[in-house]
Write a structure and sequence with these properties.
The protein is mainly alpha-helical. The chain contains seven helices and two strands. A two-stranded antiparallel sheet has the order 1-2. Helix 4 runs antiparallel to helix 5 (100-114) and helix 5 packs antiparallel against helix 6 (120-141). The longest helix is centred in the N-terminal third of the chain and has 25 residues, at 15-39. The chain is globular and about 50 Å long.
Length: 156
């Protein structure tokens, strides 16, 4: 008995491997950026690039492990499975315009509204709280330089 697979599912079957390779490359790029641009260790303590280096190397190593040794059988991914990647791509693309903190807060609000289907006030409160927490912890306390975005740079 010979069952043919649809061409759509056949073309999407390599997507998980490509996503894993993308994660490895992005992790390595993030680690390099953190190390060379922000400084891994500054004045006898961790610099602004400490967390990007550690997280980037962790993502790259785990991505390589996943790519080489994953026991999970790969299945084709439908269009709905691409939504998280598309949402993150739009978020990253919006960072130069509206800044990192606002882009992440907006991503959280829209994710809760559209994907989680929660009420607008819960989405807004969660997004505003997450944005405030990101700003307070990283920008104020840890002094991590985040991209401000075109509009905030114009205001200053």
């Amino acid at each position: 008995m010979n069952i043919e697979k649809s061409p759509e599912k056949e073309s999407l079957s390599c997507l998980p491997g490509l996503v894993t390779i993308g994660i490895v490359l992005m992790g390595a790029a993030w680690a390099a950026l953190g190390y060379f641009k922000y400084g891994f260790w500054v004045n006898s303590g961790p610099g602004g690039g400490f967390f990007p280096v550690v997280a980037g190397l962790g993502a790259a190593v785990l991505g390589i492990y996943e790519f080489l040794f994953s026991p999970v059988k790969v299945k084709a991914v439908g269009i709905k499975g691409l939504w998280p990647a598309a949402a993150m791509a739009v978020t990253v693309a919006s960072i130069p315009l509206i800044g990192m903190v606002l882009a992440m807060a907006l991503f959280i609000v829209l994710w809760i509204l559209i994907v989680e289907r929660k009420s607008w006030y819960k989405a807004f409160l969660t997004g505003a709280g997450a944005g405030a927490a990101i700003y307070l912890v990283f920008s104020l306390w840890l002094k991590v330089p985040f991209p401000q975005g075109f509009f905030l740079e114009m205001i200053k």
